[in-house]
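Key result, reporting period 2: structure in, sequence out.
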């Protein structure tokens, strides 16, 4: 399948959809997000890219606090609430208006990240994360979450820059993060697509595109 050359199909599947790309640090999700966004724009689909934490003026200030290695004393519950605060602003300011006008919204991380990092790895109960999350997003959950699955050793080898506060956590923490993502996908297979991101970028994108077409076409 030549996934970049399907404008008619993308035109019918993407408008008004909210898709999240998520996964462990170093999974390559941001690279794949940029490629899909370009494919969507080439197909003349209005595309809004957002990232978490951040994506708004307020959210970017929260991001600085969350990722600053100097804030090592921050407790997990504080982390969770700050991520949710940034998310609430993002949803209200950018995501909901874009969806209301029929745009395609593509997010780099969302509640799936909080469930994996502060939930599965950090020890906060899933029900607590979900309860706060439902308030933060006003009930507007993603149409599909794509998880880029990678082990920590592979992910870490891809990072040449200085690590932020979350990336500096130990290997066991990141193992729990990965398992948290996979647990989410197992619990809700219709809303999650898991892609092996240890292979080359072209094969990853082919898997993403094929999987997205299959999932979204079933609901159209």
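The corresponding designed sequence is given below.
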């Amino acid at each position: 399948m030549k996934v970049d050359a399907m404008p008619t199909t993308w035109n019918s599947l993407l408008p008004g959809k909210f898709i999240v790309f998520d996964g462990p640090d170093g999974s390559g999700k941001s690279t794949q997000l940029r490629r899909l966004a370009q494919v969507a724009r080439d197909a003349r689909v209005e595309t809004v890219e957002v990232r978490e934490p951040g994506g708004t003026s307020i959210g970017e200030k929260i991001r600085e606090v969350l990722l600053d290695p100097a804030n090592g004393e921050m407790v997990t519950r504080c982390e969770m609430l700050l991520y949710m605060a940034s998310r609430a602003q993002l949803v209200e300011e950018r995501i909901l208006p874009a969806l209301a006008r029929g745009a395609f919204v593509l997010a780099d991380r969302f509640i799936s990240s909080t469930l994996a990092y502060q939930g599965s790895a950090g020890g906060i109960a899933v029900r607590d994360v979900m309860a706060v999350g439902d308030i933060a997003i006003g009930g507007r959950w993603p149409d599909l979450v794509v998880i880029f699955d990678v082990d920590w050793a592979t992910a870490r080898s891809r990072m040449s820059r200085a690590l932020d506060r979350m990336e500096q956590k130990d290997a066991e923490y990141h193992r729990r993060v990965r398992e948290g993502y996979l647990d989410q996908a197992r619990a809700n297979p219709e809303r999650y697509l898991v892609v092996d991101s240890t292979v080359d970028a072209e094969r990853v994108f082919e898997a993403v595109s094929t999987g997205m077409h299959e999932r979204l076409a079933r609901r159209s």
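The chain has a mean pLDDT of 92. The chain has one domain: 3-219. This case is discussed further under Risks and Mitigation.
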